Amino acid sequence: MALPAIPLAIIIFLIISYKLYQKLRLKLPPGPRPLPIIGNIYQVKPVKFRCFYNWSKTYGPIFSIYYGSQMNVIVSTTELAKEVLKENDQHLADRFRTRSSASMSRGGKDLIWADYGPHYVKVRKLCNVELFSPKRLEAIRPMREDEYTALVESIYKDCTKPELKGKSLLVREYLSSVAFNNITRLAFGKRFMDSNGVVNEQGQEFKKITHDGIKITAKLSIAEYIPWIRWMFKVEQDALDKFAADRDHLTRVIMEEHIKSGNTKQHFVDALLTLQKQYDISEDTIIGLLWDMIAAGMDTATISTEWAMAELVRNPRVQRKAQEELDRVVGPDRIMTEADVPKLPYLQCIVKESLRLHPPTPLMLPHRASANVKIGGYDIPKGSIVHVNVWAIARDPAYWKNPEEFRPERFMEEDIDMKGTDYRLLPFGAGRRICPGAQLAINLITSSLGHLLHQFTWSPQPGVKPEEIDLSENPGTVTYMRNPVKAVVSPRLSAVHLYKRVESDM
Ligand code: HEM
Fold first, then answer.
1. Which residue's alpha carbon is nearest to atom 41 within ligand 1?
2. Which helix (H) or strand (E) holds 272?
3. Where along the chain is heme bound (predicted)?
4. Residues 64/357, Cβ–Cβ less than 8 Å
5. Per-residue confidence (pLDDT) for residue 368, from 0 to 100
């Protein structure tokens, strides 16, 4: 054996011995047998939460798998979710960062990728108390109302075009625009799209940056989970540096525009610049937070509304019942506003039922253990990644009658909270890392749906029966429909002016 190989052999021997010792000493959750070096990574099917659900039937409600040498634990019941997100919350609140997410977040200087610690506590407080406070959400309501009417106007324009009469529209196209405008206006205080739907130069730059970000993070290699082979799989540092430079440049230009205008409004960029000294946050953190909102808020809002619309086209009974409620409360002579929502309980139940069956982040975001903990009687070593399968939990027949059925009435019969206090329904997670944008998201989804149902009727595309609408999912951290829903749309209200956008200059 060549001389330099001896220390390497000793290191490998020590690692293997340590792993064996750990395995024998600890009571680790059961799971599929991992292959040497790569673990179970190639056994996991693309739609992960379904694969994990199937594995939970074999290995139990808590099981472990390995990505390379990295242990991952998956829990699939209400009781275990409570152990993770309530009883052991503090020790399971870190994040696992790949090299690209570490680079993009500058080592977790934002919120999403930050480990739980003093920085996280400070920034989280800023989000809860300042950015997502009920007062601020109410102050920016005119902006959201503007976007709901813009959504309606664009659909009306298309569905009344003679050449499109009786043809189906791609629902996602309209929902993506409303989410794009809502979230960019919220974060940056700017509408990048003009009234004809044309995105301006800065908006194009923004879109390119988000597209590049997705492309970089999608290129994950197994080396992320096997630290000792990372040197063989270099990250594309040039692409990461360019992404960061482009993102920072665009954000700084927008921040400068806000500072110069001296006209502080309620958007996040204004709020963060105003609060920077008080909370002692760096420019990196401001930039990180603004882009966190884009990453976490834009797709999730589109996805949730698209799933709900698919269910409503599939279930004409539910659609009609929601429309009856809207007709009763709002009537035919005006459009609904967010102020109507408390008087629309059935509409609210539709949102819950849709998020129950189709949570946009079915495995939440993974948490990482900062200490050794016990879950379900098993040892979870420090550094393990823990996933809660909220998709499986919300379909558990132990808690849900006919769980596969889309039946909003179930929430009329029992009022179940979905903002982290009831562990049967956790689309936004629970505990200290619960989604800070939950209320905003609920407002966006409920009101978009309300407008779409009050102002239009939605039917399946010609030749498709409602029950034939495909409800399968695309792989990914966020779960889009595999086949975007298409629907034939017809206006319900007779007054044409109710289909015009009502602009707000917020
Ligand atoms: C239906 C829409 C949404 C769903 C289902 C959703 C769900 C979630 C979930 C499951 C998490 C992870 C919780 C955890 O790690 O335990 C999360 C985190 C987060 N969400 Fe949302 N979200 C939605 C919309 C939004 C919106 C609109 C925003 C902001 C504009 C937002 C901002 C965030 C942020 C910043 C985090 C990171 C929190 C942290 O790490 O502490 N989300 N969201």
1. 433
2. helix 268-279
3. 435
4. no
5. 98
* CATH annotation of 93-359+394-499: 1.10.630.10
Q: How far is the CA of 364 from the centre of ligand 1 (A)?
A: 8
What's the helix, strand, coil split of the chain in %, to 5?
Answer: 55, 10, 35
Candidate of 364, 432, 435, 480 to mutate for ligand 1, largest count of ligand atoms within 8 Å of Cβ = 435
DSSP run (H or E) holding 378: strand 378-380
Q: Please state, as a whole number, how many other Cβ atoms lie within 10 Å of the Cβ of residue 449.
A: 24
Assess whether pLDDT exceeds 80 at residue 299: yes
Cβ of 31 closer than 6 Å to ligand 1, yes or no, is: no
Instruction: Convert the pLDDT of each residue in 115-146 to its tens digit.
Output: 999 999 999 999 999 999 999 999 999 999 99
Contact (CB, 8 A) for 406 and 315: yes
Contacts of 476 (CB under 8 A, 6+ apart): none
Q: Which atom of ligand 1 is nearest to the CA of 124?
A: 41
Pairing of strands 486-491, 168-170: antiparallel
Task: Tell me if 443 sits within 8 A of 137, measured CB to CB.
Answer: yes
Q: Answer whether 0.85 is exceeded by the pTM.
A: yes
Model confidence over 302-359: pLDDT tens digits? 999 999 999 999 999 999 999 999 999 999 999 999 999 999 999 999 999 999 999 9
- Residue where the block lists tokens 């956008």: 501
Q: Whose CA is nearest to atom 15 of ligand 1?
A: 365
In 3D space, the residue among 305, 345, 326 whose CA is nearest the CA of residue 444 turns out to be 305
Residue 85 alpha carbon, nearest atom of ligand 1: 16
Neighbours of 220 (CB within 10 A): 15
Pairing of strands 456-460, 70-75: unpaired
The strand pairing partners of 385, in sequence order, are 72, 368
442 lines ligand 1 (CB under 6 A): no
| Domain ranges (residues) in the chain | 1-92+380-393, 93-359+394-499
Ligand 1 site, residue 304, Cβ cutoff 6 A: yes
